[in-house]
Design a protein that fits this description.
This protein has one helix at residues 2-6, and strands at residues 11-16, 21-29, 39-47, 51-52, 61-62. It has 81 residues and is mostly beta strands. It has one domain.
Length: 81
């Protein structure tokens, strides 16, 4: 995540299916010129199934979709559900 903040990515959404949480990180901060110290200044967090508020102009994200089992695909076979 530090890499995204260092690059100035304004919004970073993380879905953690194992912990059943969704996070929205905003306001990237790069102290000085050291990318190893970059971080996001703001975080919104909800349990999966909740509504994750994203900054304008993005709509609120309904995270209930991420509670659904992963469909079978060649890639999905390699990941636990």
């Amino acid at each position: 995540m530090r890499t995204y903040a260092a690059a100035g990515v304004p919004v970073y959404v993380l879905i953690n299916r194992n912990a059943k949480t969704a996070h929205c990180y905003t306001d990237p901060v790069l102290p000085g010129d050291d990318p190893t110290k970059a971080f996001y200044g703001s975080e919104a967090k909800v349990g999966l199934g909740g509504q994750l508020r994203l900054p304008d102009p993005y709509p609120t994200l309904d995270t209930a979709t991420f509670l659904q089992p992963v469909r079978s695909s060649p890639v999905a076979k390699n990941f636990p559900t």
